Amino acid sequence: MTEHSGLIERFTSLDETACEAEAIALGQKGETGLETLGKLLQADKADARFWAVRGLWANGSPEAITVLIDTLADEDEMVRSGAALALGEVKAEAAVDALARLLTADSTSCGDHAADALAKIGPPSAGVLIEVMQSESPWVRRRAAKALIPVESKEAIPVLFEALDDDSYMVRHYAEEALARMGVGQMVYFMV
User: Fold this and answer.
1) Other beta carbons less than 10 A from residue 89's beta carbon
2) Which of 126, 124, 99, 120 is nearest to 111 (CA)?
3) Residue 135 within any structural domain of the chain
């Protein structure tokens, strides 16, 4: 058994605590760990790829972020979600466009996790979230409106006011919450 296949076997075990500890340890090994995690991302088993994502999160280097962005296209929902969440946790500004694409294109929970990641990245996400608010899809607008709540972008105020008349109750709800969080509330807003 090669070291690589032994790692895959360990990362497909049921012991999640041990898997997470080993993934984090690999991530903290710097370039050596990155190389091993890259190999794990090529595994057929989604569990191994998922734990590789966890290791990349622990690494947090620009190289790891690049690999995590690429992993947003993984065939497995759990792996894509893990990559999105990791990018949010490390506040990877470089991932904003890729996360916005996932938010708009993936109707699974991965799209929700992409929106959560954009919310954690904060103000650098405001522009794409404002764009996404123009989507024809109510579930995409809902995700964007919810993500705008913690971003607190003054640039989003006009689009959030427009969203108060959205056909979707959830879009209206999140737009109202985003405005209230910025202290705008239901006051009359005039564009200058």
Assistant:
1) 15
2) 99
3) yes
Looking up tokens 């490390």 gives 90
In order along its 192 residues, the chain shows pLDDT tens digits of 455 567 777 777 768 898 899 999 999 998 889 999 999 999 999 999 999 999 999 999 999 999 999 999 999 999 999 999 999 999 999 999 999 999 999 999 999 999 999 999 999 999 999 999 999 999 999 999 999 999 999 999 999 999 999 999 999 999 999 999 999 865 554 554
For the chain, report the end-to-end CA distance as a whole number of angstroms. Answer: 69
Contact 123, 154 (CB under 8 A): no
Question: What is the rounded (10 degree) CA torsion for 121, 126, 128, 129?
Answer: 90
Residues 4, 67, single domain; the answer is yes
61, exposed or middle or buried, with CB in 10 Å at 0-12, 13-18, 19+? middle
The per-residue DSSP string of 75-119 comes to SSHHHHHHHHHHHHHTT-GGGHHHHHHHHHH--SHHHHHHHHHHH
Question: Do residues 71 and 79 lie in contact, with contact meaning Cβ atoms separated by under 8 Å?
Answer: yes
Spatial distance between the Cα atoms of 28 and 39, rounded to a whole number of angstroms: 16
Does 43 reside within a domain? yes
Two structure tokens written together for 183: 């202290």
- Give residue 48's domain range: 1-92
Please report whether residue 117 resides in a domain: no
